[in-house]
Amino acid sequence: MTDNPALTLYLAAPRGFCAGVDRAIKIVEMALQKWGAPVYVRHEIVHNRFVVEGLRAKGAVFVEELDECPPDRPVVFSAHGVPKSVPAEASRREMIAVDATCPLVTKVHNEAARHAEAGTQLIYIGHEGHPETIGTMGQLPPGEVLLVETVEDVARLDVRDPGRLALITQTTLSVDDTAEIAAALKARFPAIQVPAHDDICYATTNRQAAVKAMAPQIDALLVIGAPNSSNSKRLVEVGRAAGCSYSMLVQRAADIDWRALQGIRAVGVTAGASAPEVLVNEVIAAFRDRYAVTVEQVETAVEAIEFKVPRILRAPVESA
Ligand code: 10E
Ligand code: SF4
């Protein structure tokens, strides 16, 4: 028996790795097996320090730009996607390049190209400076894709032809905030073409739904994820919007502010799409050290999606 206070820990499901992250990490591991170390990776393969350090220990070298890679070593492009200029430059330098862009991000790239071919100007809802935004906007020449971050931005848009517009989005946005921006766009540009299902991916949608479902039961929400992880930060915002005012991002158990949690009886725990399950287990163990914990899973969806790795990794190594 311990004197630890009782605590219900609601564990979101789904949480943590999505199919795109799983595939991207596998790509780096398979590239290391196929070509040996070092394998260069342009940008963090996914936004998680723990994942990046694990791959670095196996021989991956993380860089921000292609010109930091020697031309005779393979390079992997991160799961967030890259502008068209990047694979073009890799091929000009005759590098082996493996694209770990999530297929659901590539789908948005393809939509952008399809609309541009039809002479349609694109409006992109996303976060300025994020690698996925840079990658998706970089599928087309400057000026072809107009960025919108907020409802207020909609009024400021200067479009070429209000009758020939299409909407695409970042995959990791808040479902509710995006719906508001899309509604403002439709109000201002009634002819705008919007995707049948928005571009926010299944993993983002499911993780946000699980947080909303647990919000009424919890006094605090901890989202395990990195400060540069867009989808993880959105989960914190969704928690707050759903009524859980203490919603915090933590990279791992050591970041938990135990003083701020004093007196709570129920905590919600989830993890962004790039946060490994070991960190979830670490957080649960840290709660067990301080509370008499009962874990309850809040399951709002079951995910069974898997993506194949690129063919180049499945083929035998070519002899020199
Ligand atoms: O910052 P993001 O949420 O875009 O990236 P992440 O690496 O934290 O999670 C994976 C999501 C990707 C690759 C974007 N669709
Ligand atoms: Fe792909 Fe969605 Fe995961 Fe991004 S969050 S890697 S789009 S599955």
In short:
The protein has 320 residues and is α/β, with parallel strands linked by helices. Helices cover 37% and strands 18% of the residues.
Tell me what you see in this structure.
It is a single chain. With 320 residues, this protein is an alpha/beta fold. It has three domains: 6-17 and 202-299, 4-hydroxy-3-methylbut-2-enyl diphosphate reductase, catalytic domain (Cobalt-precorrin-4 Transmethylase, domain 1), CATH 3.40.1010.20; 19-102, Rossmann fold (3-Layer(aba) Sandwich); 104-188, Cobalt-precorrin-4 Transmethylase, domain 1 (3-Layer(aba) Sandwich), CATH 3.40.1010. The protein is 37% helix and 18% strand. It has helices spanning 19-35, 49-57, 85-92, 103-117, 131-137, 151-156, 175-188, 202-214, 230-241, 277-290, 311-314, and strands at residues 6-13, 39-42, 60-63, 75-77, 97-99, 121-125, 145-148, 165-169, 220-224, 247-250, 266-271, 292-299. Helix 4 (103-117) packs parallel to helix 5 and helix 8 packs parallel to helix 9. The longest helix is centred in the first third of the chain and has 17 residues, at 19-35. The protein starts with 5 loop residues before the first strand and ends in a 6-residue tail after the last helix. The mean pLDDT is 97. Bound molecules: (2E)-4-amino-3-methylbut-2-en-1-yl trihydrogen diphosphate and iron/sulfur cluster. The site of (2E)-4-amino-3-methylbut-2-en-1-yl trihydrogen diphosphate (10E) has 18 residues, from helix 1 and helix 9.
